[in-house]
Amino acid sequence: MPRLRWILLATAFGLASAVLLTAYTFEAARIARLSQQVDQRMDTIVRMNRELERLRDSIAYYKTTEGMARLAREQFNLAYPDERIYKLVVVSGEPPKVLPRTDP
Fold first, then answer.
1. Which of 5, 52, 85 is nearest to 76 (CA)?
2. pLDDT in tens, the chain (104 residues)
3. Which residues touch 85 (CB under 8 Å, ≥6 apart)?
């Protein structure tokens, strides 16, 4: 018959092992969740950096005279003095066809 101290020692060892195993499992799940959140945030940062670069390129373009002229044409319908502006009116019952835009 085993002695009482060996039974207590085995019980304490089993209890300590169960506590450590449970803590390890919870920490492993927490690490996995945090690494997933870090990956999502990194994707967001990369996407925002790409958008920032696109906007910086756009700002650099619109600072040039060509960019200013294009902006004036698109947003304010301005033209040079010697240019003619044609307005097309669709009179048929069909919906208007959108022509592909060609950049000069």
1. 85
2. 678 888 999 999 999 999 999 999 999 999 999 999 999 999 999 999 999 999 999 999 999 999 998 888 888 888 888 888 777 776 777 766 777 777 65
3. 77, 79
58 membership: H or E segment, kind and range: helix 4-62
Query: How far is it, in rounded angstroms, from Cα 79 to Cα 77?
Result: 7
Query: At 27, which amino acid appears?
Result: E
Which single residue is written with the structure tokens 């927490």? 30
- Rounded-to-integer distance, Cα 8 and Cα 99, Å: 87
**Token pair of 2, please?**
């085993």
Cα–Cα distance for residue pair 47/41, rounded to 1 Å? 10
